[in-house]
Amino acid sequence: MIYPETINDLIECYKKFPGIGEKNAERMALYTLELGQEVIDLFVQALKKSKKNIKRCQICNNFSENDICTICANENRNKNIICVVEEPKNVYQFEKIGSYHGLYHVLDGLISPLENVNPDDINISNLLKRIETDDIKEVIIAVKPSVEGETTALYISKILEKKNVIISKIAHGVPLGADMDYVDSLTLELALEERKNITCNHE
Amino acid sequence: MIYPETINDLIECYKKFPGIGEKNAERMALYTLELGQEVIDLFVQALKKSKKNIKRCQICNNFSENDICTICANENRNKNIICVVEEPKNVYQFEKIGSYHGLYHVLDGLISPLENVNPDDINISNLLKRIETDDIKEVIIAVKPSVEGETTALYISKILEKKNVIISKIAHGVPLGADMDYVDSLTLELALEERKNITCNHE
Fold it and tell me: 3-state class of A104 per DSSP?
């Protein structure tokens, strides 16, 4: 062990994060020693609070410091539309766009028969309850275009079939600004299948 | 502010680290919520200790949890040779090689007339004291090959001129495994100047 124990402990902690390898963890640990006392204090408090203060919203299951998250509690949001996502972090991705003003529903996973994740294992029953009790007009399914994502989307559309609600799915295709050379063939196949008619009709 | 306050605080802390941008800080903050209680506890303790427990070795100025660092206190190290480095992190770089068994001396900076860093502002006087009191036979200057590095190396070799000690400097040149296409011209110039004769003499 070439580092003092405290530095070693910091390295071990930083290494737990995704995308932080040995070298980056070492750099971060050594940089920690240069942080001011007030940053260290804020850091320690935020870490402690992360386990204690962050719970899930009782309505949409998003991260929240209160029983109801700020989105569900916001009177200005459109309460007739729900965007269904896999994880809380997806909520923030959509919030960053700034143009979606509806509500969310966090599934906390996707149905995966291969990994033994059944519909009961994810937060689908609460979605059904929301559709039944609230005035929901549209459910947008915004999960990733994988086997699990498609299975989950199909399952949700099935159980909501008889409810008077529009089910939609976000578009998949070639991302904006992508270099065509680097788009994989599955994405291209999807983009081809879901092509849009742009004919100009001069009648 | 789209994130709950606790998550926002974590993002602000992670963003302080070099190489961690907004996006990575967000990813790390969200991942923090998934860490186990024991990791959070270790993390909190290590952060608190980082300010309290890590001091500088009274001999070499390296990071240490005691008055004298483990390297200076190690009886098996070669006490006749000192490797002079800019920062504590450089010590660990040399320790990783595993083949250097001498001592170190951390300058905590390099002489830079442009940035008003004079010899008195860095830890050179203690180096002189060590040469005068301990049985030092060689001083290896291992600082980066910049104007500041060269100035510092020259200054140290000047003040040690009259002492009975060998002064050396680590070699600069093309790094191992480097693609010649990507080696910058200053490095190439240095590599050319410091070329070694490898003539086979068949006498």
Answer: strand
User: Which residues of chain B have a CB within 8 Å of the CB of A18?
Assistant: 27, 31
Which one-letter DSSP state was computed for residue B33?
T
The three-class DSSP label of residue A74 is coil
Is residue A168 within 8 Å of residue A153, measured between CB atoms? no
The alpha-carbon gap from A4 to the nearest alpha carbon of chain B, in Å, equals: 6
Mean pLDDT of B104-130: 95
CB contact at 8 A, B31 and B10: no
How confident is the model over B67-93, as pLDDT tens digits? 999 999 999 999 999 999 999 999 999
Distance (Å, rounded) from C-alpha A127 to C-alpha A169?
A: 16
CA distance B80 to B41: 42
Residues in A touching B10 (Cβ below 8 Å): 43, 46-47, 50
> What's the CA gap between B19 and B200, in Å, rounded?
47
Q: Which domains are delineated in chain A?
A: 5-53 (1.10.8.420), 76-197 (3.40.1360.10)
If pLDDT is split at 50, 70 and 90, which confidence band does B157 have? very high
Q: Which residues of B touch A16 (CB under 8 A)?
A: 35, 39
Report yes or no: A63 and A54 within 8 Å, Cβ to Cβ.
Answer: yes
CB-CB under 8 Å, A96 with B13 = no
Looking at chain B, the whole-number percentage of residues with pLDDT higher than 70 is: 98
- The structure tokens listed for B141 are 């200057």
Q: Are residues A7 and B63, on separate chains, in Cβ contact within 8 Å?
A: yes
What's the full length of chain A, in residues?
203
Tell me how far apart the alpha carbons of residues B153 and B169 are, in angstroms, rounded to a whole number: 8
Whole-complex ipTM: 0.79
Task: Enter the pTM of the model.
Answer: 0.78
CA pair distance A169, A56, nearest whole angstrom: 25
Q: Could you tell me if A60 and B45 are in contact, meaning their C-beta atoms sit under 8 angstroms apart?
A: no
